[in-house]
Amino acid sequence: MDLLEDLRQRLEELERRISQMVVRGTIAEVNPDKHIARVSYGPNLTTGWLQWKPLRTGGAITWWCPSVGEGVTVISDGDLSLGEIIPGSYYGDFPAPSSDPDLHLVRYEDGAEISYHQKDSQLKAVLPDAGKTELVSKGGIKFVGDTEIDGGLHVTKAIKADKDITDHTRSMADDRGIFNGHDHIGNQGKPTSPPQQQQ
After folding, report:
1. Which of 28, 33, 104, 111 is most buried, judging by how many CB atoms fall within 10 Å of its CB?
2. Number of domains, the chain
């Protein structure tokens, strides 16, 4: 092999490796059990099985499986078989869900949304009609601020209130005053004494 041919082959190899250092495509297949996926790129080209990069993997660790069709980027040292998938690229089939620079939004495939709007200081979570929410905090939960519940409330243990409780008619304190002060007409037509056992 002469020198020029050797240089030509080396140059082609360098060009091939450079072209595979950053590859943009879409998720073609996903294997959640092994945390790997394949990426479709170019005309009829698909990578081998590659790991996708999670957000964190230390003391704080995240799990978020990419979706088939999701836009991604594969980075490598030039050998695509050793590449890693970087999730997240907007494109036609998966456009940006907002253009508001003050909004942080996560929209899920079932339509659920979790968002925070930093200009309005509003945190919001909206689930589909059949959605359920479970919050487990055995050490306790504290709400600071007025709380409105638009729906039924089921409590399995005692309810304690430091202040009065009011329904659409009157407060429990008013009911207590009515009960403690009420009397009846006795057998002789005279009012009886108020109840001995006060509320």
Report:
1. 28
2. 1
